[in-house]
Amino acid sequence: MGWFEMPPMMYGIVGLMFGLGLMISGMTDPSRVLAFLDVAGDWNPLLALVMASAIAVALPAYSYYKRRGMLFGGNTLPLPETRTITRPLLIGSAIFGIGWGLSGICPGPAVVLVGSGNLQGIIFTVGMVAGIVAHVFFEKRVLGNKPVPEDV
Amino acid sequence: MNLYMQAIIGGGLIGLSAALLLLFSGRIAGVSGILGSVVVGAWGRRAWRVYFLIGLLAAPLVYGLLGMPAPQIDMTINNFVLLLAGVLVGFGTRLGVGCTSGHGVCGISNLSWRSLVATLIFMGAGALTVYIMRHGVV
Lengths: 152, 138
Description:
Chain A is an all-alpha fold.
């Protein structure tokens, strides 16, 4: 046991920071996201800058974490080790991209839009939750996989 | 604040959130994974995900309290297409195990080829979809 354990409330603060970042950066504005994806039209490259800025902060943290090999709390939790590029990864990402291109909304901004009481955000999120549930059935019935327990 | 500063500061906050989550809990700030686990009933020790989602939901409220104007939302697609898009995003991100945050920010920061490939594919598919919607098929 280490010297610091993140109290549950802190996860709320971290989520809040994430949400504010999405709002400030313009990721919660579908028209801006679509302008970023519209490479053949009036292309708006700003969202690439959002992603680059996020990576510029997160990448050193990941490197540090891997070098140090443990958390600030002293516990160790392994990072995802799956490195193989599989068919579900490719097909799933393509399906996600189509939905993203249709709407301009990805999962994080969808949750933020629900928080702002935006009706269209709520409609999208209802669909998204249905898609998540459909995936569970797809894994079980079609692929015959047992549900894989997520990390703790 | 001009648009470039907004992109840099907003992106930096997203990255900082991902960094804090990793360093203090070893967890990945991937919203599709967090939401997916909550939807399929991952409770108990997984309660952190619920707190994270509450933080996301509270962002517009806090944004307003900080005196910033609510960001513009205008969507031109009809509600049926919107619902369908949501289904595709929910299903696709679970099948591909990650979205813009999990693969695009955290995975690339973790120098994972898998995440880089996923990011290029969903961006490519998104760009292609927008192209077809706005500029017609070839």
